Amino acid sequence: MTKTKKVIPEEYIPDVGSQVETIDGQRYLITNDAMYTFYRRSKGEFSAFFLALRDEKKMLGCKCTKCGLVRVPPFLTHCPDCDFAPTELVEVDQVGTMYSTPPITYFATSLFQHMAPYGRGRVLFKGADTAVSLNLYTTTGILVPGILNKGTEVKLVFKSERIGEMTDVFCVPSAELPADLVAKNGLEETDIDWESPVEPSISEASAQDVEIYEEALKEIKSIIKEMNGNERARKDIAGWRRRISVKALGGQFSIIIDDGNIGLDEKPLDAPDFVMVSQDPRVLLDGLAYRGAITDSIIGKKLWISKNAEFTTVFKLDRMARSVVRTKKE
Amino acid sequence: MSKRVGIIGAAVTPFKGMWREKTYYELAQWATREAVKDAEISIKDVDSVFYGIYNDIFERAAIPEHALHGLLGMQDKFGIRITTGGATGAYTMSAAHAYLAAGRFKTALVLGVEKATDCFDFSSMSATPEVIKSIGWSGDSYFEQSIGWSASDSYAEVVLAYMDEHPGDLKPEVTAQISAQLSRQVQDNPIAQRQFDQVTPEEVLNSRLVAYPFRELEICVYSEGAAALILAEEETALAISRNTGKPVIWITGLGEANEHSFVGKNQKDLSRIMSDYYASQRAYEMAGIKDPTESIQIVELHDAFVHQLEISMAEFGLVPLGKADALIEENLMTPGGKYVVNPCGGLIYCGHAVGASNIMSAWSARNELVKRGLNTALVHGTGSTIAQFTACMILEHE
Fold first, then answer.
1. ipTM at complex level
2. Chain B contact for A260, CB < 8 A?
């Protein structure tokens, strides 16, 4: 039996509670709180569009009966450019091009951290005059700049479980798919061969590699000690707990984040929250020393993480690096 | 015949990442107290109030201004709230001007306030993801919210489309230099959130990508604070000015434009910020400015993102479209250059207390016109999805 999903996932909901924060000798009361409203909202005139996505695996637009402009999505019933002439629903092709180069979100809102990094951009489907905003992915792993650009041809893909929302569909570059899948209408995500994240193997270390590793580890230890003594950096990980296994050419160690404390352990972890792998141990060192963001190293495929959702933790490490640099300048 | 309208008082509370010590009630009253003190009038002399508050969710109340009216001493007087996304403050000033110019009132309080970082994400134990989630409710609720619309990715769409058309512009080393320059300028702004956060271009380039192509040090920071102006029609403004000995800073031009929120033929051209173009052109026309490159000396621009700052400067006609990097490469905005751009540090370093931000920019422009003995400033606010809304204002110091 499928588990029922809640409108608000459990992990977002705080316990009832309060705390006192003292600033300049004054006590301030801080209360856990929420402003929530639930909806049973009709899709109204958009129902046909969303039902076509959900039930027929079709993308609809609306065509003005006077000027012929085809708008996707069909967000209106009458054309404002033609003194409100009526429009009629039409189906458009499931192959299109990027109207412009799409952004990629790495640091997402609390609702979307689980799907970062993700692309969202405008797709101009064949037969349409306007571009629809859709999620964009690659079949080759993490979406990085350069995979999707203005003019890149993309294919509409339907999720297997559809609920009648824009999240039912997304696009991938056509060039990543065989021709028969590009030609197929109603292509589902399960039809596609997705590259599975596999932990990169690390080659055998030479004596020189071990020396480099030991040197880097020494510096990383020193930085982590400094972070642990830095109030601003400690605030960056307040309330956060993670056990991270770090593997590199020459050895492995663990980073433990525990509600404002950060530590390094040279022993490997049995069940880490996630794993970081880098052939060169200096990649992580540079990030922690604020000589380039760790985020950028992941995007640039110099550093691998086992869970994309842990970008949140990586952001916290990047922020700690900056906090230490800021404090030094003061 | 419409009346001339000028600024005769202004104040801004410190902008901070978080005000544990104050609610938005106190922030609003604090800015108001200081603004009437600056104008050397009593709150009893103020006829009307125009509230700039962006987002009900931030204040955790629908109609957040209702509680402010009495505590500001405006009981039984006119009060109206304006909310137009990031452009809230600029549109609020525009609305107040219209009422005064029409002769409805002699004086007006323009009050912007925002309390953003009470929002808190308990899953990551930090405020920012929840703050940007709250802003995420500003995206289209049928077609965009559910797929991860955010203010950053929405403005990034515009910036990347511009870069598609002008691939040699908005070079990373230039955006990094602009950010570093703004961080130096903010040192003179005592109310700024990041007054002492000076960065080098290298640090900007080393900061993390938040939404490609924006790096952390190229994005405005969310703030809490309030800003207030006292506006008056000409006769009242001159009388107050004679009393205080402070010059009236006249609002001589206003322009606004809101674009389409969907993209494509007959809709939004994603590679342009036409709202900036139309709003600035309309403001120039009203102020009688024929050539802005000759007239505009100070620009207090809503820099949500450094890249957008560059595009906005081009849309204002102050640097050619496609050659916005000339702002740095030809020293147009470097110290001693043709334009003084965001002397307050902009929203990236002074901070972005949304409803208050553009009003803070007007406060800064007024201060700078007087301090530097200059004549003309452009104040700007941008907001909503894909830089849809703009309001511009020309300030003159005679």
1. 0.93
2. no
Min distance B151 CA to chain A CA atoms (Å)? 10
User: CA nearest B29: which of B193, B228, B224?
Assistant: B228
- The pLDDT of residue A56 is 98
Residue with tokens 């500001």: B72
Dist. CA A119–CA A100, nearest whole Å: 12
What's the token pair of residue A162? 């559809």
Q: Shortest Cα distance from B150 to chain A (angstroms)?
A: 8
Burial class (CB in 10 A: 0-12, 13-18, 19+), B17: middle
Q: Which residue has the tokens 């799907």?
A: A115
- Inter-residue contact A156 to A96 (CB < 8 Å): yes
Question: Does B263 contact chain A (CB < 8 Å)?
Answer: yes
Contact present, B144 and A166 (Cβ < 8 Å): yes
Cα separation of A154 and B185, whole Å?
A: 44
Q: Over the stretch A79-96, which tens digit does the pLDDT of each residue have? A: 999 999 999 999 999 999
A118 at interface of B, judged by CB pairs closer than 8 A: yes
DSSP for residue A77: S
CB contact under 8 A, B125 and A239: yes
Above 70 in pLDDT, residue A1?
A: no
Q: How far apart are CA A64 and CA A70, in angstroms?
A: 7
| A99 closest CA partner among B142, B268, B309, B353 | B268
Contact A86, A118 (CB under 8 A): no
Min Cα–Cα distance to chain A from B118, Å: 9
Peptide bond into A197 cis (omega under 30): no
- Give the whole-angstrom CA distance, residue B162 versus residue B158: 6
Q: Which of residues 318-377 of B touch A (CB under 8 A)?
A: none
Residue of B nearest to A167 (CA): B147
Query: Which tens digits make up the pLDDT trace of A22-36?
Result: 999 999 999 999 999
A104 CB near a chain B CB, below 8 Å? yes
Mean pLDDT value across residues B197-207: 95
Structure tokens at A287: 């990030």
* A54, A163 Cβ separation under 8 angstroms: yes
Cβ atoms of B237 and B229 closer than 8 Å: no
pTM of the model: 0.94
User: Quick check: B156 and A103 CB within 8 A?
Assistant: yes
Q: Search chain B and give the residue with CA nearest A16.
A: B122
Q: Are B229 and B110 in contact (CB under 8 A)?
A: yes
Mean pLDDT confidence for B109-126: 93
**What whole-number distance in Å separates Cα of residue B193 and Cα of residue B174?**
24
- B160 → closest Cβ in A11, A101, A316: A101
CA distance B328 to A217: 41
